[in-house]
């Protein structure tokens, strides 16, 4: 059992705002592939458009393999702290830390909204809020890394306040993962709307020629709780006549485990999978909550001309099967998710609250000790069949 390190030394404040430390503890990979260990680092003030939170909980995901293995070579400096999503209390604000507006000022706030999938609010919903954050406010942060520590820094434009009367860690998962699912769907829909009539006609003619009739379907490829949340979030958000199918990469679960009708459930490796998807018009958008390694070729065989695949997570080897012939012959697109914006996080929370989708989210908690963070990371790398999200808990009062 690892002995916890001494608590951070806090600077005293005279204005009643939360104290900030001189140093604090965080978990790091000291070099590529090393196990996580705790260390102390210097506290740094937030820059323009940034804020710092005292972390109550950090959600780990397979994407933290980017930090463990230094997969982005030009940014792969070690030691490196993983953790892309955190919830906590604001302790310090940089200049212009406005929700939804990157660096403050009228122009930058407008530019931050003029991005794909961010300007369009659904009928009957409130527009995204642009208030100035306050110290002591409880918020959710989306960052590139560095959230697995007692304090972390984030951009105001990728931060949203917590909702009241809803479990904190469930909100953390819904706002961050759910926001990325909504962004992937909206980006695809908006880019289709922008196509010219000639572009649409060519794609439709090609799809008819290979037997993909109608508008096609949206596929969630994956397993466990994240696939379930993605399916139900889109089912609640899209038109009732929009066909949404979950293609499970697991042989362990059945439709009842996901709380979904059997006609919306298929599995990788089942006989006639491509034919079943062909009868639905082929795949126009595949959102993969599990890296498209198993079943990737079958998914590409069932993709419509002009179809799109958006991987939301990866495995530690970072590899993906992508036969180039499919991409060229059918004008397919494989790309990552949009940078998460506060408006998408807001919207995911509102939809889940309205439809009670928090029932599809369960949390597996781990302590912030060296043993605890290692257990959390091991569980995350091996959680593909699991319906729980893994959260390292720093402060139980934050729940």
TrEMBL record:
Metal-binding as UniProt keyword: yes
GO cellular component, one term: cytoplasm
InterPro entries membership: GroES-like_sf, NAD(P)-bd_dom_sf
Lineage: Eukaryota, Fungi, Dikarya, Basidiomycota, Pucciniomycotina
Key words, A-Z: Metal-binding, Oxidoreductase, Zinc
Organism: Rhodotorula toruloides
Any one GO molecular function term: alcohol dehydrogenase (NAD+) activity
Cofactor(s), by name: Zn(2+)
UniProt-recorded name of the protein: FGENESH: predicted gene_3.129 protein
């Amino acid at each position: 059992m690892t002995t916890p390190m001494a608590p951070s030394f806090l600077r005293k404040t005279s204005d009643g705002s939360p104290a900030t430390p001189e140093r604090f503890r965080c978990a790091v990979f000291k070099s590529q592939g090393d196990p996580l260990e705790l260390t102390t680092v210097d506290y740094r003030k937030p820059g323009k458009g940034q804020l710092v939170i005292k972390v109550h909980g950090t959600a780990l995901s397979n994407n933290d393999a980017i930090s463990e293995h230094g997969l982005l070579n030009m940014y792969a400096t070690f030691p490196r702290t993983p953790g892309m999503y955190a919830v906590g209390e604001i302790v310090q604000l940089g200049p212009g830390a406005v929700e939804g507006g990157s660096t403050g000022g009228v122009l930058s706030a407008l530019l931050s909204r003029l991005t794909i999938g961010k300007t369009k609010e659904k009928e009957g919903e409130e527009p995204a809020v642009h208030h100035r954050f306050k110290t002591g406010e409880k918020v959710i942060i989306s960052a590139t890394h560095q959230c697995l520590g007692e304090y972390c820094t984030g951009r105001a434009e990728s931060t949203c306040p917590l909702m009241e009367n809803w479990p904190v860690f469930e909100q953390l998962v819904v706002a961050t993962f759910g926001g990325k699912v909504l962004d992937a769907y909206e980006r695809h829909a908006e880019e289709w709307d922008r196509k010219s009539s000639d572009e649409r006609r060519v794609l439709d003619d090609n799809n008819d020629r290979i037997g993909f009739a109608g508008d096609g379907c949206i596929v969630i490829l994956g397993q466990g709780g994240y696939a379930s949340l993605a399916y139900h979030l889109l089912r609640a958000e899209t038109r009732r006549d929009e066909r949404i199918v979950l293609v499970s990469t697991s042989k362990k679960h059945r439709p009842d485990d996901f709380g979904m009708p059997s006609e919306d459930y298929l599995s990788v490796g089942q006989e006639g999978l491509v034919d079943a998807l062909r009868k639905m018009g082929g795949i126009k958008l595949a959102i993969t909550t599990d890296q498209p390694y198993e079943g990737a070729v079958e998914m590409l065989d069932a993709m419509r001309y002009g179809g799109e695949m958006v991987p939301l997570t990866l495995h530690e080897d970072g590899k993906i099967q992508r036969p180039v012939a499919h991409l060229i012959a059918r004008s397919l697109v494989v790309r990552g998710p949009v940078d998460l914006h506060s408006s998408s996080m807001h919207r995911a929370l509102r939809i889940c609250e309205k439809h009670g989708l928090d029932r599809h989210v369960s949390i597996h908690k781990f302590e912030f000790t060296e043993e605890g963070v290692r257990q959390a990371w091991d569980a995350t790398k091996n959680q593909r069949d699991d319906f729980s999200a893994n959260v390292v808990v720093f402060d139980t009062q934050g729940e």
